[in-house]
Amino acid sequence: MPPKDEDEMSHAHSKDDTDMGYRGTVKGNVVVLEEGVMLPEGLQVDIVPVEEPQPGSPAALLEVWGSDVPDDAWDAVEKALEELDRTDKEQARNHLHA
Asked: ∠ CA(70), CA(76), CA(79), 5° rounding?
């Protein structure tokens, strides 16, 4: 096979070709990858912690619904969540003073 020219070599190592993400869980300071993921021994990797969104938050809803939710629907959800939060705080305050 003839040696690759510069264009082929730069494409072979481009960010698009090598940026693959995998999920795993830390157990005993070792990252255990999801079932079926096999990486070569000695491969260096970057680990980025995943922050779980607060239940009921817009970020949590986005995970469930996806990103195709219209802005006006998000506005309505945020308004409803704010109202629920305000109501919860008022009920807690009233309970303390009862």
From this structure: 140
Tens of pLDDT, residues 30-61: 889 988 888 999 999 898 888 887 887 777 77
Dihedral-angle region of residue 23 (phi above 0 means left; psi in -120 to 50 means alpha; beta otherwise): beta
Residues with Cβ within 8 Å of residue 62, at least 6 apart in sequence: 53, 69
Angle between helical axes of 58-65 and 71-96 (0-180°, round to 10): 140
Helix ranges restricted to H, the chain: 6-12, 15-18, 58-65, 71-96
Residues 6+ apart with CB under 8 A from 63: 53
The verdict on pTM exceeding 0.70 is: no
87, 81 Cβ separation under 8 angstroms: no
